[in-house]
């Protein structure tokens, strides 16, 4: 997965998903950043992480009504649907680890090789499920480009699967 970096440019690394629609939501909202982590040996190491903006930058958005397209439940709020997204009085997301640039860390983002984006293969028909081998590490992975047509179709259908409306609404707050 190649993600825009919050500090500029782009970085390539590995993400793990439960389903293919999550690839689409990642492309739309998740960015890469760094996080200095002090290990048990006392040495601080810079790691790459996947991040989203802090929804508590606009906490009032958690109370804005929207129509939940799933389950036929009609109008609701993020405050109801995502009860674990809670802000402190200081505008911080309760329990969140923040990256070096102040974004909410959602997972580690191990780099693919040196992290520099690879040149995209041209004239290759997207084939979801196709495995590619990272030449540096030998790891097998599925490239996000394989899912581009499916992501476009999902967008055309109102993001009707995957992390869906709740994740997208939390991530788009900031």
How are the elements arranged and paired?
Layout: E1 2-4, E2 10-12, H1 21-29, E3 31-38, E4 44-52, E5 66-68, E6 74-76, H2 78-81, E7 104-108, E8 132-133, E9 140-141, H3 148-156, H4 164-171
Antiparallel strand pairs: 1-2, 3-4, 4-7, 5-6, 8-9
Features:
single chain; 174 residues; alpha+beta; three-stranded antiparallel β-sheet; two-stranded antiparallel ribbon; 4 helices; 9 strands; 17% helix; flat
Low-confidence stretches: none
Relative strand content: 15-25%
Radius of gyration (Å): 18 Å
Strand order of the largest sheet: 3-4-7
Tell me about this structure.
This protein is of the alpha+beta class. The chain is built from 4 helices and 9 strands, in the order ββαββββαβββαα. It has a 3-stranded antiparallel sheet. It has a two-stranded antiparallel ribbon with strand order 1-2. A two-stranded antiparallel ribbon has the order 5-6. 22% of the residues are buried. The model has no long low-confidence stretch (mean pLDDT 88).
In short:
This protein has 174 residues and is of the alpha+beta class. It has four helices and nine strands, in the order E-E-H-E-E-E-E-H-E-E-E-H-H.
């Amino acid at each position: 997965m190649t993600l825009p970096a919050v500090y500029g440019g782009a970085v390539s690394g590995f993400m793990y998903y439960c389903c293919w629609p999550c690839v689409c939501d990642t492309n739309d909202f998740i960015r890469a950043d760094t996080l200095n982590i002090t290990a048990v040996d006392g040495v601080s190491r810079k790691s790459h992480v996947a991040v989203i903006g802090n929804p508590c930058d606009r906490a009032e958005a958690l109370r804005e009504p929207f129509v939940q397209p799933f389950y036929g439940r009609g109008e609701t709020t993020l405050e109801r649907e995502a009860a674990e997204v809670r802000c402190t009085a200081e505008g911080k997301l309760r329990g969140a680890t923040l990256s070096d640039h102040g974004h909410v860390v959602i997972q580690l983002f191990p780099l693919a090789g040196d992290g520099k984006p690879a040149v995209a293969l041209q004239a290759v028909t997207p084939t979801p499920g196709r495995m590619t081998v990272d030449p540096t590490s030998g790891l097998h992975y599925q490239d996000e480009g394989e899912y581009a047509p499916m992501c476009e179709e999902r967008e055309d259908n109102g993001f009707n699967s995957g992390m869906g409306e709740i994740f997208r609404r939390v991530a788009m707050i900031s």
